Amino acid sequence: MTSSSTTLSLVDTDPAELAVDAIVIGVHSQTTGPDATSGPAGTLLLADGAESIAAAFDGKLTATLTLLGATGGPGEVIKVATLGTVTAPLVVAVGLGPEPTGAAPAPETLRRAAGAAVRALAGAPRVALSLPLPDDADAPAALRAVAEGALLGGYRFAGYKTKPQPSRREPVAEVLIAVPDAADATARAEVDRATAVAGAVRTSRDWVNTAPNELRPPAFAEAVATAARAAGLDVEVLDEEQLRAGGYGGITAVGQGSEAPPRLVKLTWTPQGQTNGKRVALVGKGITFDTGGISIKPAQGMWEMKSDMAGAAAVGAAMLAIAALKPAVAVTGYLPMAENMPSGTSYRPGDVVTMFNGKRVEVLNTDAEGRMILGDAMARACADGTDYLFETSTLTGGQVIALGKRISGVMGTPELCERVKVAGDTVGEPAWPMPLPDDVRKGMDSDVADISQVNAGMDRAGHMLQGGVFLREFVTDDVAWAHIDIAGPGYHSGEPTGYWTKGGTGVPVRTLVQLVEDVAANG
């Protein structure tokens, strides 16, 4: 099942004269005093880009929007019938919050606004965005944000309904973005990049949203491999026999409880021409469904465990974007895939598993399965050779407890964790570095093996950190690494907001792409 696509293009025609179904403008909440912030007490201020629309309304547009309840709050969407004042039959004002002093709105503000507006306009085939874009060095980032927001806000998973839904409106098919010069090469390049990256995010969302009976490990591996080959990547897929023979004890142990056997997919991007010699490895957790195994989960909410492969979906999708963007750095993606099921062949608490790098792990909780398959994949990445290793996974409920549902937790080499934080801030996927304390590692000492999966006393204190401490055992000393826990941000179960729709979010595809481009540019 795939989502409908949305196309993007640039236009430099007067927004008031565009032949579209709706024209989107920005509106700020304006302060009314030195201590005021925003909200109903303030007056509205139209953002840059709305000038010709405001003129067509003879200066009455802000008063009309206020009568309709507009406050200019971030993401607020207010629709006004134009009654022929401009070519478009509908003007849509999207809130941008208070006007920033001496600057354009932050890229993430624009990204969320574009997403909210395009999502609210489902059913309108052709929409134009006339949002504030700076004319300085910040212009490319702002345009990229608007383009990404429009494409991601317009996403909707196709779903499985068998009957027509009369109230279900089709996503916007075509989005025009108003810019000063539609022929500008830099602007066109930003649209091309946004199309590639947002397309990858949408693919990641599709994989996460697919029903788990349709995306078991062999099917998931085939879907990723097919897309990767079409993108020009080199593809290697290891089946259950090759995994067993190759010493992938973690992947084999977790996958042996399911009739759908495990897989390891390796995707390789090899740049042409001169590079800085650096190599990047991306690793993503691909548990296509997680019952918890023998240590079975409660039934409440278990259906969301179809999203336990969001890390692998993000890595696979990021590799598709990398193939399109062609950065001057070698990148390899590793996607370990398994289905964690209870059966007569499941791995058990008390088992000792020999991992790919030879370390032996005592299993205490079969629901700590993600770290088992990731340990093998990370050890393989280090054996193949890499300078930087970025791993992402819906690993622990502790991430949600500590940081909520929007901010990822990052653990690993301190310098690389900070680099992840900067990249996340840049693209609107925030992440926060967390420590890997010695006492947490000590609590994972095993009486019979090199390490236990979780705290030997089943103490859940520092639960998120236990995952990072465990994964550190499978990274060689010469490799800088970062573990990105997306247990919260990887799946959005609430109502749509900004450019996030319900279901898979695609986090952290854009962060991974940003990191790869950063390594290509700066080493």
Automatic annotation (TrEMBL):
<keyword id="KW-0645">Protease</keyword>
<feature type="binding site">
    <location>
        <position position="290"/>
    </location>
    <ligand>
        <name>Mn(2+) 1</name>
    </ligand>
</feature>
<dbReference type="InterPro" id="IPR011356">
    <property type="entry name" value="Leucine_aapep/pepB"/>
</dbReference>
<feature type="binding site">
    <location>
        <position position="285"/>
    </location>
    <ligand>
        <name>Mn(2+) 2</name>
    </ligand>
</feature>
<keyword id="KW-0464">Manganese</keyword>
<comment type="function">
    <text>Presumably involved in the processing and regular turnover of intracellular proteins. Catalyzes the removal of unsubstituted N-terminal amino acids from various peptides.</text>
</comment>
<dbReference type="InterPro" id="IPR043472">
    <property type="entry name" value="Macro_dom-like"/>
</dbReference>
<dbReference type="InterPro" id="IPR008283">
    <property type="entry name" value="Peptidase_M17_N"/>
</dbReference>
<feature type="binding site">
    <location>
        <position position="367"/>
    </location>
    <ligand>
        <name>Mn(2+) 1</name>
    </ligand>
</feature>
<comment type="similarity">
    <text>Belongs to the peptidase M17 family.</text>
</comment>
<feature type="binding site">
    <location>
        <position position="369"/>
    </location>
    <ligand>
        <name>Mn(2+) 1</name>
    </ligand>
</feature>
<feature type="binding site">
    <location>
        <position position="369"/>
    </location>
    <ligand>
        <name>Mn(2+) 2</name>
    </ligand>
</feature>
<dbReference type="InterPro" id="IPR023042">
    <property type="entry name" value="Peptidase_M17_leu_NH2_pept"/>
</dbReference>
<protein>
    <recommendedName>
        <fullName>Probable cytosol aminopeptidase</fullName>
        <ecNumber>3.4.11.1</ecNumber>
        <ecNumber>3.4.11.10</ecNumber>
    </recommendedName>
</protein>
<dbReference type="GO" id="GO:0004177">
    <property type="term" value="F:aminopeptidase activity"/>
</dbReference>
<feature type="binding site">
    <location>
        <position position="308"/>
    </location>
    <ligand>
        <name>Mn(2+) 2</name>
    </ligand>
</feature>
<feature type="domain" description="Cytosol aminopeptidase">
    <location>
        <begin position="365"/>
        <end position="372"/>
    </location>
</feature>
<keyword id="KW-0031">Aminopeptidase</keyword>
<dbReference type="Pfam" id="PF02789">
    <property type="entry name" value="Peptidase_M17_N"/>
</dbReference>
<keyword id="KW-0963">Cytoplasm</keyword>
<keyword id="KW-0479">Metal-binding</keyword>
<keyword id="KW-0378">Hydrolase</keyword>
<feature type="binding site">
    <location>
        <position position="290"/>
    </location>
    <ligand>
        <name>Mn(2+) 2</name>
    </ligand>
</feature>
<feature type="active site">
    <location>
        <position position="297"/>
    </location>
</feature>
<feature type="active site">
    <location>
        <position position="371"/>
    </location>
</feature>
<dbReference type="Pfam" id="PF00883">
    <property type="entry name" value="Peptidase_M17"/>
</dbReference>
<dbReference type="InterPro" id="IPR000819">
    <property type="entry name" value="Peptidase_M17_C"/>
</dbReference>
